[in-house]
Amino acid sequence: MVFSSTIFLFCFLPLVLLFYYLLKIEYRNAFLLVASLSFYAWGEPRFVFVIILSILINYLFGLLTHVCQQKFGLIINRIILLTGVAANCCLLFYYKYYDFFFSSINSLTGLDFPLKHIVLPIGISFFTFQGLSYVIDLYMKKVPVQKNFIKFALFKAFFPQLIAGPIVRYVDVHQQIDNRICTVDDFAYGVRRFVMGLGKKIIIANTLGSVADNIFSLPNDQHSMTIAWIGAICYTFQIYFDFSGYSDMAIGIARMLGFKFKENFDFPYISKSITEFWRRWHISLSSWFKDYLYIPLGGNRRGNVYVNLLIVFIVTGLWHGAEWNFIIWGLWHGLFIIIERMLKKANLNIKVPKVLYWIYTALVVIIGWVLFRAPNLGYALEYLKIMFGLSKATHVGFSPWYYLDHSVIFMLLIACIASLPISKYLKETVGAYENHNNFSLLIQNTYIAMLFVLCIMYLVTTTYNPFIYFRF
After folding, report:
1. I want to staple 23 with a disulfide (CB 3.0 to 4.6 A). Which of 27, 214, 436, 471 is the partner?
2. Which residues form a coiled coil (predicted)?
3. Domain limits, the chain
């Protein structure tokens, strides 16, 4: 089940909200757990046991860590931690990387290890990282142990963030699981945030994503330079509005239920460096890798900082998918972050117009998205050659205007505007939503209502409705 489906919008979500607020407070966590597992089972009924297994692994290792911290020394505690981390990683490896690992071994060595062709459970990377953060934070004594199984299971399986994030850490929500209050203002904010995310997804991401998919589905010999750039730019906007739209919807639903999630995006396409881009893009993932991988490797304090950065970005690429193009995508970003650190350390004091920094960052990001979107590395490299005029297509069947009709051009314009922090600027200059007078609130609520109606119109008249990050 996806947030942008009619079954979710008009059946699942209204029923969950209705029963949630009809129930007594002491029964709400159990109800949300059942609803969350049902939500997951709707699309992946045979893989519910995977998330239940992940819940059990982390719950038991949490209890074991708590007991050992009271009775045993550092060595035993560290063994428990490493075993818990290994258990999580083994579950993720089996379902996500088993075939990739052995197919790579076969290609490199000529051996013939049999492949299992394992179907990837939706959201396994997200809920595995949740479990890892809990076990590690418990070992570091940053969070108290959760002995109530239902409360812990709800943390792991809470449906707004279950299958595509943001990656919610136990340290950020454990108090809310025990005690939360949802005011009318909170609920109204959640509705507005959800509708804005739905608009991003249904109207912008789906429109531009359809164009990107059509272009990337063609053989490279049918791409002209212009068409290749159209595909890359459309995908650049699609992946941002698809994923940030999902995050907005997740944050909005959680707020309707009394939970406050941290932000996951901060207008990344205004960045003037790749370092800044990763402070603004998928914030929950980049901060996770910083806290649980980069700093433990030594961070900026010890060891080779550049090696640490490369390791982090290789793993970042691998987290997104078991394909070499994802690894190269991670390396691509990591290399530019290293170059930027070297230039900053050199302190050259070269004055460059800010717009050139933005153009440089945009080019690096767009090239990276081609590596990310392409079905394989070979296709990506040939596609990039065509983009930059190093190779020419021989069987171009359509002109660029076949893809750039009036609706697509208009949506590209809307995407450019929506990528700018206009809403943040308005909030800082004219005040927050709650501070406006009744007439202003009426105008804003009318806009949200009209946007929701427009989303429904788009939804019922089209069949294209994927979520990119579901497969991670």
Report:
1. 27
2. none
3. 6-180, 186-471
